[in-house]
Amino acid sequence: MAEEKKKTLGRRRTECKLIDNKAAREVMFSKRHRGMFRKASELAILCGAEVAIITFSPHGNPFVFGHPSPDAVINRYLSGGVVNQASEAAAAAAALHTLNERKKQYEDAVSKLEEVSRVEIEAGKRRAAAGNSDGRMWWNEDVDDGMGLEELLYYADSLEKLMKMVADRVGSKPRA
Predict the structure, then answer these.
(1) Interior CA angle at 136 toward 131 and 137, to 5°?
(2) Is 56 helix (H, G, I), strand (E, B) or coil?
(3) pLDDT tens digits, residue range 75-86?
(4) What is the mean pLDDT of residues 137-143?
(5) How much is the pLDDT for 75?
(6) b or e along 45-84 (b: 16 or more beta carbons within 10 Å of the residue's beta carbon)?
(7) Of 167 and 9, the one with more pLDDT
(8) CA-angle at 136, arms to 133 and 138, nearest 5°
(9) Number of C-alpha atoms within 13 angstroms, CB side, residue 75?
(10) Nearby residues of 37 by Cβ (< 8 Å), 6 or more positions away
């Protein structure tokens, strides 16, 4: 039997040289830098190595990866490989502080969301008690739900402006 010729080129190794096309170079960087960080993370996890990578994109944006942290690895390198317990403790304390700040922000956001939800439920109950649960749309409902005179005047002025804008838009459209 005759040998069948391979139909595809298969996976080919790219030549290691600067990519001339700027857009292609940026795309290559965006794909490859994530892979490089993933490999560094695997090295750190599997071997217990301390790893830091700092790279700059073609646009000049910095991308940093470090395990346990970039600062801890760089400080160890600058100190000649001596493990500085104080700097590691400071890095851990800073990380814990950041974590606590994020947790507080999250809890604040959740409490605000619960408050808004509670207010919406109460507003729905008030509308139902007032008899507005008969399927009417919001624009058919009364607007006197706690608005002061100044707010009502502003509301009326806004509606007049809206009506004028709609009329201008309808008047400027060619008729079919």
Answers:
(1) 130
(2) strand
(3) 888 888 776 666
(4) 65
(5) 84
(6) eeeeebbbbeeeeeeeeeeebbbebbbbbebbeeeeeeee
(7) 167
(8) 100
(9) 15
(10) 53, 63, 65
pLDDT tens per residue, range 17-54? 888 898 988 888 988 989 999 999 999 899 888 899 99
DSSP string, 59-98: T--EEEEEES-HHHHHHHHHTTS---HHHHHHHHHHHHHH
**Which H or E element spans position 169?**
helix 149-172
* Whether the Cβ atoms of residue 67 and residue 51 lie closer than 8 Å to each other: yes
pTM exceeds 0.90: no
What's the residue count for the chain?
176
Nearest-angstrom CA–CA distance, 33 and 41: 12
Residue 133 near residue 141, CB atoms below 8 Å: no
